[in-house]
Amino acid sequence: MERNGSNGTAVVIVAAGRGTRASQGGDVPKQYATLAQKPVLARTIAAFLDCRGVGPIVVVIHPDDVALYEKTIAALKPAASDMQRIRPPVFGGATRQASVLAGLDALAEHGGGAPEGVLIHDAARPFVTSQTIEKIISALAATAGAIAAEPLADTLKREGGGGLIQETVPRAGLWRAQTPQGFRFRAIHDAHRRASLQQRMEFTDDAAIAEWAGLEVRLVAGSPDNTKLTTAEDMAVAERKLISPEQGGDHKLIMEPRMGTGFDVHRFGDGDHVWLCGLKIAHDKMLMGHSDADVGLHALTDALLGAIGDGDIGKHFPPSDEKWKGAASDQFLAEAARRVAALGGRIINVDVTLLCEEPKVGPHREAMRARLAAILGIEIGRVGVKATTTEGLGFTGRREGIAAMASASVALPSSV
Ligand code: MG
Questions:
Q1: Alpha-carbon distance 43 to 75, whole Å?
Q2: 26 with 134: CB under 8 angstroms?
Q3: Alpha-carbon torsion (140, 145, 147, 151), positive or negative
Q4: CA 26, 32, 33, 35: dihedral to nearest 10 degrees?
Q5: How far is the CA of 166 from the centre of ligand 1 (A)?
Q6: How many angstroms is it from 289 CA to the middle of ligand 1?
Q7: Distance CA 256, CA 281 (A)
Q8: What are the pLDDT tens digits along the chain (416 aa)?
Q9: From ligand 1's centre to the CA of 406, what distance in Å?
Q10: Which of 101, 117, 249, 377 is deepest in the core (most CB within 10 A)?
Q11: Closest Cα partner for 6 from 113, 149, 132?
Q12: 286 C-alpha to center of ligand 1: Å?
């Protein structure tokens, strides 16, 4: 099978449905609804254009949607070479099955000859990955059909009426079918034509038609992200995944890494404990400062604020403000994390180094990591805590105080 040549595996994207449950305002079919500034269908087409081994793409649309389709292609801004791969749209029929057949007919009738393989895909699944597409194209080398699918994870119940469970249905061997569904072109085209001639229009996906026609169809593990956007809630969830909820959908989807560093020092005074990385640790001195003098939290707060270009701890919590006298420093760090989230960002990882001769940090390291992870709301695997002495040199070596360095890495929308 041709996989990387100019022809490649053809694609039929089924976009003729009238479902408006998912779209804003309720009157635009969901495949044309805007998802983070781009029509769903534009995202779906782009997923295939970006993929190796994919040849011509035919989109099956409803006759009423020509203007919406043209706007979608304009939003896609395809390169000239990609534009050649997007064939003119085809009008669909009364059912999904009829629409797929219209797309297959168009591929068969094209002057260049029918393709060897075809992928049939729902327009409302914009999150299909190149990996899934390529796995299906590869599988077609050995079998007449291959579909993206996910093994069922939930326990299945059969209702016996009145909302009561009649039985638990064994889920072993059960998969949820997704798209793309890939087939050898002639085999699936023949199967669709025969089904149409025999007026067998009850099939709910193309694999069912292939099964009916006796074709061997393989299950290919896809991705749980390859969901079909059906309801307005599906759209809202997808939008939240793509953009910051706090920015009104006004900003770019591309996330980029930012990093910041922080440094802090507090001197020792008389006392019986120190606060370090959010833990109270018994010691024969304490750290002096306006707040609880937790150098680890202060350095890390500055690192996070630095990563988002939002000043420093002194700007947000001025020592001149009586409010912060004796304050627990975990609230400073929590506020920095909140500021990251408010920009639509997320913390990738943080790392703290404590410089001191005493107290010994090693015995508290895991508890410190857990505490920092809890304050920041991230997994412990994203938190590093390290300590070093300074070999008796300098103010830390003379046990006059503790210094801390920190770095933080943050993923932010590129428009921030
Ligand atoms: Mg400080």
A1: 10
A2: no
A3: negative
A4: 170
A5: 63
A6: 7
A7: 37
A8: 433 334 789 999 999 988 766 554 557 888 998 887 789 999 999 999 988 899 999 999 999 999 999 999 998 888 888 888 999 999 999 999 999 999 999 999 987 789 999 999 999 999 999 999 999 999 999 999 999 999 998 999 999 999 999 999 999 999 999 999 999 999 999 999 999 999 999 899 999 999 999 999 999 998 888 999 988 778 877 877 776 544 444 434 578 899 999 999 999 999 999 999 999 999 999 999 989 999 999 999 999 999 999 999 999 998 888 888 888 999 999 999 988 887 778 899 999 999 999 999 999 999 999 999 999 999 999 999 999 999 999 999 999 999 999 999 999 877 66
A9: 12
A10: 117
A11: 113
A12: 13
Count how many Cα atoms sit within 13 Å of the Cα of residue 230 in the half-sphere of its side chain.
3
Which amino acid is located at 24 in the chain? Q
What CA–CA distance (Å, rounded) separates 326 from 322? 9
Alpha carbon distance 9, 140 (integer Å):
10
Measured distance CA(352)–CA(338) in Å, rounded = 19
In whole angstroms, give the CA distance from residue 234 to residue 22: 7
For residue 397, report the distance from its CA to the centre of ligand 1, in Å: 19
User: Do 313 and 266 touch, CB atoms closer than 8 A?
Assistant: no
Tokens 């503790």 correspond to 402
Nearest CA to 243 out of 40, 47, 44, 35 is that of: 35
pTM for the full predicted model: 0.59
| C-alpha 357 – ligand 1 centre gap (Å) | 19
- Which tokens sit at 247? 């920015």
Q: Which token pair is 79? A: 């390169």
Helix, strand, coil in percent for the chain, rounding step 5: 35, 30, 35
Other CB atoms within 10 A of residue 39 CB: 26
Residue 85 φ/ψ, nearest 5 degrees: -80, -20
Contact 348, 337 (CB under 8 A): no
